[in-house]
Give the backbone structure.
Amino acid sequence: MHAVDLIYSALDPDNPEYPVLPGDPVDGICCITGQSGPCLPRKSLLGPSFTTGDLLALPGGTQVGVAAYVALKYKWERMGAWICDGKTFRRLDRQGVRAAVLGAVPKRPWAGFATTSYKKHGALLAPVNNRDRNVWLWNVEHIDCSDREQVVELWDALNAALRAGIGRTVIESLDCPAWLLERIGLDVWLAFVRWARPHHKSGLYRFLTYLLPSQEELKSA
């Protein structure tokens, strides 16, 4: 199963935003998923500007499946973060991604995409999760959040650092300016750095740092 299959299954054809097929499908093999079934010409979805053929199951294929066409033409697939389990497609903001990452794993096969920008086709790379697997696509990087104990440990420590006055940028870079060091105290900073150094280059550390509450959220809590 591919992420485009989940999105295709979740979308309601009666939705006004449901993509309209450009013609009648014919039997073929989808260059995106490698699956056989009803297909459309590749050029109806992937134009000359598409240069990441290495993401495709069949880079030289001339057809795209109807499921891939509908999923990738659905504007919300490429306009921000989302989670999809084949039944529902939910658009997410950063807080929504945070809740999904830290919450219960869906019982159905699902895929999740988090992004710091727009107009990226998350469904091309988002892995399909089963059982207790919890892997997110963050921009173009797979972030494995399956180890619940590790995720909670990192999340709690990062939150404690944030609430101690260490901002998100400093948490990510471990580069503390002198004025901040004076404000939070040397002992607090050294304790955090000793803990953070083994982790801070990992994708999970960077992803959870991105998901930390904003200053506005902290003030309103």
Summary: Residues 42 and 63 are 4 Å apart (CA to CA). The first strand starts at residue 26 and ends at 29. The longest helix spans residues 148-163. The mean pLDDT is 95.
